[in-house]
């Protein structure tokens, strides 16, 4: 599973603009191709605008604050206004743009400061961030499975690559639910191959920080089983891209969808259940007295999910 040293592989410093303009294949391309070969082709042809959202803006600013504080100071300005719709805010925004910077709200800034404090209370992360030999926001250019590839690494310190992710939750089990959905296992495999190409034998860690108070923080590593899965899926995507297979994967097919298990069981939770009424835990089938949404079963410890939870998680 480990990669090999490549004579032409190298670590370089590269702006975001140059990185995204570079034609080498990146992990996000694999994500796009697995989403749909036709979607990947449309992205390749410039028919799809680069994704942008308040969450992505927040994440980029937080990365800069933690990994490159000097970049944060030059790229961002903190607003003194309390409302984005105020004339004062719009004036501050225009001034920031004239200085080549972006404006963030004082509320977001205060949240980022608390999040950074939480990150720095974890010895694993703090020691690697403060390692004088560590590399931050560098790009590795290498070959993967016969094609030119690239990887932008948040933090490379000693034998560890650490990728910082802002999330709604730092719970490793919640992160597990996002792994296959967002292809995070591809990223772990991809970046370890990139490090090996420049002669560094690394483990890959996700540093997950919650955007919600109390801003809990966790370090997560994936088992080698995920590497095997990632290698197979990445190989399949690269083969498809190399062969120019861009047809929609749903073309000419008719699909029949049936309710998933949790969707069928949802009827139980949609009923108007009064607190104190006897109910059954959907996980261990123990009887319990309902106290409200989000309770934990006294027997098995699992959350007794209500409709709000089922809108987010595929419970069971």
Question: In words, what does this structure look like?
Answer:
- The chain is 43% helix and 18% strand.
- Strand 9 (278-280) and strand 10 form a beta hairpin.
- Helix 4 crosses helix 5 and helix 10 (184-197) packs across helix 11 (224-242).
- It contains 13 helices and ten strands.
- The strands form three sheets. Strands 1-4-5-6-7-8 form a six-stranded mixed sheet, sandwiched between helices. The protein has a two-stranded parallel sheet with strand order 2-3. It has a two-stranded antiparallel ribbon with strand order 9-10.
- Residues 299-316 have low confidence and may be disordered.
- The chain is α+β, with helices and mostly antiparallel strands.
- It is globular.
- Among the domains are: 10-51 and 121-242, Lambda Exonuclease, Chain A, CATH 3.90.320; 261-310, no CATH class.
In short:
The chain has 13 helices and ten strands. The chain is an alpha+beta fold.
Question: Which key phrases capture this entry?
Answer:
316 residues, alpha+beta, Lambda Exonuclease, Chain A, six-stranded mixed beta sheet, two-stranded parallel sheet, 13 helices, 10 strands, 43% helix, disordered C terminus
Task: Provide the fold topology.
Blueprint (H helix, E strand, L loop, with lengths): L9 E3 L3 H6 L5 H9 L1 H8 L9 H14 L1 H7 E3 L8 H12 L3 E3 L1 H15 L2 H7 L5 E10 L2 E11 L2 E8 L4 H11 L1 H14 L5 E8 L6 E4 L3 H19 L18 H10 L7 E3 L6 E3 L17 H4 L6
Parallel strand pairs: 2-3, 6-7
Antiparallel strand pairs: 1-4, 4-5, 5-6, 7-8, 9-10
Helix pairs in contact: 2-3, 4-5, 4-7, 10-11
